[in-house]
């Protein structure tokens, strides 16, 4: 049974970059190419964890232990003079007993859902089962990535068949990590400063409003995220994420309404797509939600410009699958056959 999650309201807990670093099993080395570097200072400005400082006109990694490997600095460097090297030591963050494996009946149920989604919709890749392991709960037996990844990257890896569990020391995106309740938000993000540097919003006021209006979970309320193919589940799913074309999202929306006729109120903004729109909103609202993607997930994953996303609470999946089966009997094949298109 899905555990109720309360959204984080009121003042945001902000953590200094040095405090943000934990005794992580993955560390990073920040390498600067002195011949290419122009000393522009963009790496210092864009680093959300304040790892880099300018000294005598050159960037220096002054807090390398705080680096998350998000590669924002290297991505924003106009001279491509920065390289982030991970020193991976794949040690699981698993104190205490491991969670029991998922029971056979639930596994079979998830596989059936996945089969219907893939066959009726014609999905190229797997639907993804998303779970949040709460603080104090045992961790399931799911492999950890050797390097830090963004949550959206882990979701896309699951879409291609790879199961991954990521405690805070495997998450690379400070923004998504704070949204999902694994850690406090860094002050450069809470202040809106980074969004202005990225030219994603017009003003600090607009950036702060965006941060304030998006849902987030209380810091450290979540121990790890788990993403895996829905047909190869490792633990109880809470949200099923589907990546597909707008037409496929249309049928999913109709399938959810098949027995009720309910019209949906979707919440999408182009900011924090996978963490907020595909995961947290469905999880906390109990309703499906769409996402057009965001800057981060499109810049750091294989999501191309033909795709969008939907998050479906597991509590709705039985009705969604039943409705999709019915739509697949006539409506979907007829629509795809263009039965009403005049013979021009």
What does this structure look like?
This protein is α+β, with helices and mostly antiparallel strands and 344 residues long. It has 14 helices and twelve strands. Strands 7-9-6-10-12-11 form a six-stranded antiparallel sheet. It has a two-stranded parallel ribbon with strand order 1-8. A hairpin with a 2-residue loop joins β3 (52-55) and β4 (58-61). The longest helix has 18 residues, at 104-121. The protein starts with 13 loop residues before the first strand and ends in an 8-residue tail after the last helix. The relative contact order is 0.15.
Q: How many distinct beta strands?
A: 12
User: What is the count of DSSP helices, taking H or I runs of 4+ residues?
Assistant: 14
Which radius of gyration do the C-alpha atoms yield? 21 Å
Question: Strand arrangement, largest sheet?
Answer: 7-9-6-10-12-11
Biggest sheet layout = 6 strands, antiparallel
The average pLDDT score comes to 90
Helix content: 25-40%
Q: Strand portion, in percent? A: 15-25%
* Ends apart, CA distance between termini: 54 Å
List the SSEs and their pairings:
Blueprint: E1 14-15, H1 17-20, E2 26-32, H2 42-46, E3 52-55, E4 58-61, H3 72-76, E5 82-88, H4 104-121, E6 128-134, H5 151-159, E7 164-167, H6 174-179, E8 185-186, H7 187-190, H8 193-197, H9 204-213, E9 222-229, E10 239-244, H10 246-257, H11 273-285, E11 289-291, H12 295-300, E12 308-313, H13 317-329, H14 331-336
Parallel strand pairs: 1-8
Antiparallel strand pairs: 2-5, 3-4, 6-9, 6-10, 7-9, 10-12, 11-12
Helix pairs in contact: 4-13, 10-13
